## 1
Amino acid sequence: MPSSELWAVDLFGRVFTLSTAGQQWELCRDAQLEFKRVSAAAPCCWGIACDNQVYVRVGASDVPIRCREEAYENQRWNPMGGFCEALLPSDRWPWSDVSGLQHRPLDGVALPSPHWEWESDWYVDENFGGEPTEKGGWTYAIDFPHTYTRDKKWNSCVRRRRWTRYRRYKSRDTWAKIPSEDDPQQLPDPFSDLSVGGWEITDEPVGRLSVWAVSLQGKVWYREDVSHSNPEGSSWSLVDTPGEAVQISCGPHDLLWVSLWEGQALVREGINRNNPKGSSWSVVEPPTSENGILHVSAGVGVVWAITKDRKVWFRRGVNSHNPCGTSWIEMVGEMMMVNVGLNDQVWGIGWTDRALYFRHGVTQSELSGKTWKAIVAGRECDGSRAGSLSSLLSAGCFFGDEVRGGGESRVPSDSEAERPGPDPERDVEVAGPASTPAELPWTNIDLKEPKKGPRHAAADFPEGTNLSSLALLPLGLEEPDSADCHALWAWVSGGGCAVEAHTTLKWFTAHSGLRASMQMLSLPITPAQTAAWRKQIFQQLTERTQRELENFRHYEQAVEQSVWVKTGALQWWCDWKPHKWVDVRVALEQFTGHDGVRDSILFIYYMIHEEKKYIHVFLNEVTALVPVLNEAKHSFAVYTPERTRQRWPVRLAAATEQDMSDWLALLNLCCCESRRVHGRPSPQAIWSVTCKGDIFVSEPSPDLEAPERWLPCDQMFWRQMGGHLRVVEANSRGVVWGIGYDHTAWVYTGGYGGGCFQGLASSTSNIYTQSDVKCVYIYENQRWNPVTGYTSRGLPTDRYMWSDATGLQECTKASTKPPSLQWAWVSDWFVDFSVPGGTDQEGWQYASDFPALYHGHKTMKDFVRRRRWTRKCKLVTSGPWLEVAPIALGDVSIIPETPGAHGSGPGIALWAVSDKGDVLCRLGVCELNPAGSSWLHVGTDQPFASVSIGGCYQVWAVARDGSAFYRGSVSPSKPAGDCWYLIPSPPKQRLKQVSVGRTAVFALDENGNLWYRQGVTPSYPQGTSWEHVSNNVRRVSVGPLDQVWVIANKVQGSHSLSRGTVCRRTGVQPLEPKGQGWDYGIGGGWDHLSVRASATRAPRSSSQETAGKRRGEQGLPSGPSKVAGAPQETPNPVCC
Amino acid sequence: MTDDKDVLRDVWFGRIPTCFTLYQDEITEREAEPYYLLLPRVSYLTLVTDKVKKHFEKVMRQEDISEIWFEYEGTPLKWHYPIGLLFDLLASSSALPWNITVHFKSFPEKDLLHCPSKDVIEAHFMSCVKEADALKHKSQVINEMQKKDHKQLWMGLQNDRFDQFWAINRKLMEYPAEENGFRYIPFRIYQTTTERPFIRQLFRPVATDDQLHTLGDLLKEVCPSAVAPEDGEKKNQVRIHGIEPVLETPLQWLREHLSHPDNFLHIRIIPQPAD
């Protein structure tokens, strides 16, 4: 799990972050600013600084925030000058927006704020609906507004073209001031509190946030249009409140609570995805009438509050349907403030000691937690005495200046804090001494307290004294006793801090700075493996064996090897009638041959017609052991080449999960032993993933890719690796990356085992916890009738009113279970709006009848509708994988290399597509650091779906709209290349995946057709046309020898049909790169495959020749084309 | 890359070439040929010497045969110590094969325990495993195991079946992820120079500051004489399984990889041989 951060402000106004993986506070360095309040979300943190301005700090990322600006150039034809800018008086502007209503000259398009910069100059967009327009991007029509076409016709009187330009948000990892409004009427008075939340309400637009603020006058404001692509939002809008607000808290979902001057709380009702601002307020009375509510904090399903007597309260029964909750429960502790973060975890600041506390033991079943635990993580400024002194002093110089300025502007706020009630005359009021301690701690009083220290009650603090002198003074005073200085905190925000039940935090014990940093160092992939002591032990053991055994091998062994039999009871799926699970006894006999090779036989004893019979499996013939976990059974399938051809494995089930993994681990060990497969897979290994996310790996035998007499791929032995992935991609230098169902990127650590493989079947190091999240979908179906409209009463012939996607299976919310017992629900059912085809505001999709094409709006002809409900479930396992945070990926590709061909290059080219569709290029990937160092963003005009890099740095990609692109000029020295070339898709097909081998380019469309790119030469790497190869393909992987492997959709075996089968294209020759037929391997249930590391060629004399031919024909950049038919051109890679 | 799991294999399959000769005073019917055997380092003498016994019994009269015992250079060999330990303690500097003298008479009652059957070895072995688990897990793991698991441990050792043994033994090597190691390290330190058979104490794998203890820490704590002073000359060899791990080796790692099947870390300290 990636680390996330807790944000806090100390009494000096300095902002610190504490990582969930760390044990030390990091100062958020900014010399100029001190903060009063911060409110964090995962991608950013908003804050109010002491200058009363609002700032947003967007975290640094390798993927830029970029927005497209566009303008249309419109022209009309006239007989005199042809197409020109002289339009008719009734026409649109010559330069306009897409509608033509807005005048939009190119030089009039300005950056929205100083935090943006232009990425490049304006350019004409030549891409028209996935096809290049040529002719300067012009599209033609009869008149404005009309349907535009690519081609100019006789009646084309007008034309237009689109100019685009990207702007990029540049103020990352720094506090960016939110620009004030120009219009003084609109300008809100200074803000006193602010809260960020609401990211779970909807994901449209991506990264949408609700930012709420309270001004000094007690008004509530909402920041419009805050999202990932517009981190600053656009403007503040006033939200009317029935009382004067002092403090506000917005939960991650739809909870918004406000505390009022009068001591009640306001709760916003009617917040939903269509109306994130909500519609009305309700009032919640404080727990006791004499002590009003001072502070509230809302989570997803909880609200915590502090009353004026410092007591902490927990609001029971809060949820989306009842945002007000039911009743207050008093909690222990006296707090100044509390903050609810992600997963409803709670942090608080103690009233007396100003220490930071974490609510320990908060779980979904026990939202109120157990105890307050003090966070004692050190701060970097506390680490070394000398360092802290000087930094404090230098900070103090600023501090003195800053506070003086701030002090003046703060006078009204102070007066407000002391104001006994909702007095409108605050402006004329002067600062006076505080009357009661309870009324103090709202605004920047926080800044004054450290000068007195925690020993003094805040009440007797003289107000209105010279702040700057006080501010400087304590620096000297504090110095002697700051050895035990625990930080004094003013504010905390956990909105970006993901703490889960099983997370172990290191915040609660003090550590020296050195140790903390050493721990960070030991995290990366090379652990103590290289430690000297370990090396010495390995070496000494080898020497010992040599010394004590080398000359004595002829001695007799003291203990003779014997047969070991493990027996047990399992269930077996009877292949013939009655076709059901039957109880069987199984016995695994292991024996050692004379040559020391161990072999094993698995016997399955069953009864048929009261007759004892058995079947047996030689484990050296087993090609795969595949766990098949479902709701009911812990079963696994045993494949042999024969069973693979039949598409009918031996299926066995155990009574418990533990029992199953014991058997699976043991059988795996026996199989590996008999095939002498041990330890980490070789760099050339072929990796694959099943539809259950299980990872399998196979060692390619030398004759696997032999041109003749190749090894049939049903004989390949697949062994399982721990972990859970959706995609895995490898390279022959041992770099392996994976992508989980939740789009998390993982890198292979070099270990083996994990998951259910413990003990001997697993490496000691390099195994880490891995988790994955996937969604389960069910559909709610309704039919329209004239009386009651849409109801859940269908026709008798209709599908189930709650069903799966096909409608054939009934799936209700209550009866639908996670895919297997390994998965646990982590969310409730929610309506899914991100369905292909679109939905209406309630998530419904309409159609004339079941089953049909659904669309997102109701028409007269629609008699049925459906909507998709989604629930997330999570699996926690272990495996040789480490997360590559923080960018989530959709696809990844690593350059295929033949041994020795590119071995000299230190870097390994790796390209990826993020889950948002950004194309990325990983820098710093090498054998020793397979995770690489950072992403280089490659700009695109649209979101992408798939990318592949070939052996000669030819990068191909597929956009989400199904068009293909070639990236020009990619080389080791220019890893991101220079520009994209649009490649027209095969006619009427939308591509979804592309794979580039050494030279061959194959692409797959959404209808399962496999296409070969014809005419790819060094001088024209884009090729000329797509040629159809085959249908029935789900996924393609082209290897470094240009071998073509796919996951086939359906394969018919002699006993059964399997879906998702590993297949290899046969007859792929240099002169026949498309191959001839298919060779069927392991399956079904396979989803993904990567042969891109499999560079092992059969050691044949003719292979040299073959390679030579191949090089000649396909045209590596290194050699000129010699084969007839290939154009003879300059051999250097081309870019136009 | 060599994997840690290979260490387990190397440790398990450690063999000592041994030459058994019958004691000269034993009465034989004909001359007794020496008997050569590869002894597993991790096993026990009386468990793996059936062949030796049969070999010598053939040349002896039935009435002269009583309980077999072994001796090396005048020292009776304790069968309840692992073989590798005996070798490292007594004979590590001598030439191979290891010459062991076989006796059938005058059992040294004060030096050796009787070993009438393999059940005794099993009982001894299992009590060691249980004692070790008491130190490691407060006996929780061993007590949760079934009888057949205990049997599998023993049969694994007896039949020299690495997989069979480790399939169960790995459970004894596990510890909760939130802790950095076992409660206490089960170890025994043997010294040839003292009367005391061995040292054992309670010793945690992790120091109070979360730092992993090393082999050096352990020796400094329980056997300071064995550790050479910083500048002084190395007087002693610290041996485990016939190798000398450096003192910086983390104890928990040693414990997990270089323990004997009885789950104890047997450390012997022998004087540095003068070259």
Note: Residues 453 and 736 of chain A are 55 Å apart (CA to CA).
## 2
Amino acid sequence: MSAPAMGTTKTAHSDVAPKKKRGPGALATAYLVIYNVVMTAGWLVIAVGLVRAYLVRGSYHGLYFSIEKPLKFFQTGALLEVIQYISSNVMIMLCSPAPGIVPSSVVLTGFQVLSRVFLTWAVTHSVREVQSEDSVLLFVSAWTITEIIRYSFYTFSLLNHLPYLIKWARYTFFLVLYPMGVTGELLTIYAALPYVQKTGLYSVTLPNKYNFSFDYYTFLILTMVSYIPLFPQLYFHMMRQRKKVLAHVEEYKTE
Amino acid sequence: MDTLALEAKATGQEKKSSAPRPRPKPPKKAKRIVYFEVEIVDAKTKEKLLLLDKVEPTSTILDIKALFHKSNPQWYPARQSLRLDPKGKGLKDEDVLQTLPVGTTASFYFFDLGAQIAWGTVFLSECYGPLLIYLMFYFRLPFIYAPKYDFSSSKHWVVHLACMCHSFHYVKRILETLFIHRISHGTMPLRNIFKNCSYYWCFAAWMAYYINHPLYTPPYYGQQQVKTAVIIFLFCQVGNFSINITLRNLKCPGSKVKKIPHPTKNPFTWIFALVSCPNYTYELGSWMGFTVMTQCLPVAFFTIVGFVLMTVWARGKHRNYRKEFRDYPTLRSPILPFIL
């Protein structure tokens, strides 16, 4: 799933409506370029790993194990983006005349990164039995393709050399990859439910000293339900972005 | 007020100068009143909404809002925000027209604040909710716990004590809202009632569920822990009440003059020497006492979240105090003496 406007700070906004932008300083740009290049490379490693494992095994079952470690590393690394995004927006907020206005995309994309990390660690890693499910391959491949395109998009944007193909891919592939990834995620969580209930994973029951209880099983069900309001918002947000970005380029091209 | 309200269409009609009207000439010895022209423009669409002719210079923003309301009945005055600058702050109701930095033709940007609701309504529903919800759990109404526990009573006396304290706290808040508090803003946005009520009601239900649960575990250090906690709780409740009384006595009814609160003869108010918003300090203390009394993690969460919110509010108030008053005591901190 492509997360709108992460990885770089203002360039993702700038391809929507070129306003007077105060771009990041030279040091920040260098850091961001390196970050995005590393992330692109990482997801390419995952993609290559998947393809190789498929060729070796001859089937697409159980490919998760071949890319487990790089997947965990690079997906968790995306948390850095949240920090980058928050810190750049803090700068904007501090300087803006009307502080307190946080772009809604910060909330949506921050949530998205957290949900990905949650799925990687708290579901797939924690419940060993779902790791051989096909649904895992579904969301891993969706994430891999999306992230390769997204990070290369950011890299090229930062270097001011964005090929139209990458921009088009970023704002088009999500139409299929997003639902594909969401399906994979939901199926995986669903597959994990019986094991969580049986073993009482991450759950705390009464009575206990702190008078607190937590049922991970119910929590997972609520997580699945939360996709219903949240996924359409993200999806339509990306569709609106697509209209703006690609229409803008169309106008430019006809000049 | 002697005015003629003209609807200005967006046809680029420029402000016309006051046409001579058949009025008796003012006596030559009297002061010449320069009437103002007021134009109200939508802040977002820049459409001219209203042009007011012959506005008295001594009229207030509230008078102008009332006039605007007459021609646009869906925007009652509480909902209107009139600004000199589209990105600036709303002008206060009591600002007088001639004291504003405008020429004789004033242009205000109108901003719709959305549906408003009286603050009293919000505060009361925030407080009645937790009061009733907690009691529902305390009396173990059906469908909350297992059926064999319906309408049963807890065997731990700390549970009864907790119910009394919690209920006392909210009854006190309700009475204060009805009789003591004086808030300067009459209204707040409608969505606040949903936001605030969800916050208080959900947390109240969450806490009450565990405290009144049949499997509740009483505090580790037993009587000692509970007794100490109750004393802290009551101390802070009395403190909070004293502060609210003091703040009420600062304001005369109807006046909007702000004054700095100072310690009074009541020892509970001596904390004013160190803190700007001791009502929040005491509130935090009460909830910490309640947490220790019940030894319940959800209560601890509620206390922490409440502390974060109150700190944000306290810092805002502290900043406002320091902006308003040059001689504001520098020793004071917003909420925690010397710390925060």
Note: Residues 61 and 134 of chain A are 6 Å apart (CA to CA).
## 3
Amino acid sequence: MDFSIRAANLEDCKDIARMIMELAEYEKVSEHVKVTQKDLEQDGFSKNPFFHGIVAEVPEAQRTKDGHVKIGYALYFLSYSSWKGRCVYMEDLYVMPEFRGKGIGKALMSKVAQLGMAAGCTQLNFTVLDWNKASLDFYAAQGCSDVTASLGYHVMRCEGAERGEAWPNTIEDRQ
Amino acid sequence: MDFKIRAAKQEDCKEISRMIIELAVFEKMQDQVKISTQELERDGFCSNPRFECQVAEVSEEHKSSQGYTVVGYTLYFYTYSTWMGPTVFMEDLYVMPEYRGKGIGKGLMSKVAQVGKEKQCTRLQLTVLDWNTRSLDFYIMKGARDMTASEGWHALRFDGEALDKLAAEAPKD
């Protein structure tokens, strides 16, 4: 199947928002998604973007039954390791179910790796849920390491309220 | 003990490098530290910095046995959640052992939360090693949830040869 991988632009935010919801539904957490198409446009395409995106597109002849030609995406940003320096973090990698098994996910991830290395990064980091065996197997087959399993790293999170609402100024001890 | 939390300056990179190694020694991974003071200066104090840093400073009369007045630091950067929007990741939080228990760690972490709020962040994330129960307890007391224990999130990584190989397979533009 022919497909192309390219940098996301502002007009892609509608399809990226759609696919973010599809991925959240797959991860069983769609009620947690607060980011809208407008948020993506503002956060990803302003002067100091919080993230970068790449999309996978197929020709019109292969569009989905709903008429979509943008059928996969990866969303990433530059991060930092105080031990290794510049890194890249892949926040999302998604391919619509009917387009899987054709090398599109691998192509998207490879592109993130290439772009990261071009920016001086020596690590590509991301997270996967432990029950998501298909994804864990996919990533392991590409040669990644699971630093939670091997080194014991736990992901911790302090969450404020909904986006746009107050976030604590101080981290107070719980009673 | 009085202490001050302030944004790091380029001149602080030497002390930050020292404390990065102290933290790595504590985490039993000193051999993993490859970064130099020059890289920190380049990446943290250029026109488009890759990270921000806050340091904790005490007065001369409370300097350490080796003469240090910069006794703690936190290194963090802005990230993005496709569910919640802008977030902040706290890469390191460290206070020299003899200065612990005085509110300095909490002061540094609160500063990160405050700075994150100004950037519209709704979430602060970090990682902790599972054997580091003292730090796990510290963060849980501050309201953090262990997403690995509660929801099964695993941190995965490509580096070295595996990253080179992956990048080499990227489709041509």
Note: The CA atoms of residues 38 and 92 of chain A lie 18 Å apart.
